[in-house]
Amino acid sequence: METLKPARVRILDAAHALMLTVGLAKATTKEIAKAAGCSEAALYKYFASKEELFIRVLAERLPQLTPLLRGLADEPGRHSLEDNLTEIARQAALFYEQSFPIAASLYAETQLKRRHDEALRQLGSGPHKPIEALDAYLRAEQAAGRVRPDADTFAAASLLLGACAQRAFAYEAAETGARPPVDAFAPRLARTLLGGISVAGDPA
């Protein structure tokens, strides 16, 4: 006999599935609770709002981009710079690939997008956070002497994560309809970025 998952886990699973299929805008707390086999009141015991639920889905059901970035910023110099940037690019590409279908529906409803953005601000979250975290990591590597002192770390962070985000939606109209494979895309991105920011002669 299969053991019933805890309510919080069922709610996250249901929210993730619904957000993927109907989008964040149309995934109501009522529908999420119904899919999880609980009441809306039970859902609100674990999550204060749909925005908080969305953040927890991103944090617990998608590739772990932000914890990776924070960990690297806390320990600059660990592993080679190229290896670190490759892993960041790989995780970011997968993160955006999986999160883009969830959040895309918000852009069709201006008022809802505005309310959602305000809720994220109040929760201290938002899509700018990974850029800030990667900028912090690159500044830590700059202080450690592995990134050029004149390198624009914010621009570098924006370029890497912007390319990863674009990969999530830019290739659907291509002849094959396929994204560049992440295991080839990530190292190419990392090597190209390194050409502009790494210290000359540093093995990275």
- The average pLDDT is 88
**If helices are DSSP runs of H or I spanning 4 or more residues, what is the number of helices?**
10
Count every beta strand, where a strand is a DSSP E run of 2 or more residues.
0
| First-residue to last-residue Cα separation | 53 Å
Instruction: Estimate what percentage of residues fall within beta strands.
Output: under 5%
Order of helices and strands: HHHHHHHHHH
Shape descriptor: elongated
Work out the radius of gyration. Answer: 19 Å
The percent of residues in helical segments reads 55-70%
Task: Give the uncertain stretches in residue-range form.
Answer: none
The SS-based structural class is mainly alpha
Largest sheet, in brief, is:
none
Description:
With 204 residues, the chain is an all-alpha fold. The protein is 66% helix and 0% strand. The protein has ten helices and no strands. α1 packs across α4 (50-61) and α8 packs across α9 (153-167). It is elongated. The protein starts with 6 loop residues before the first helix and ends in a 7-residue tail after the last helix. The mean pLDDT is 88.
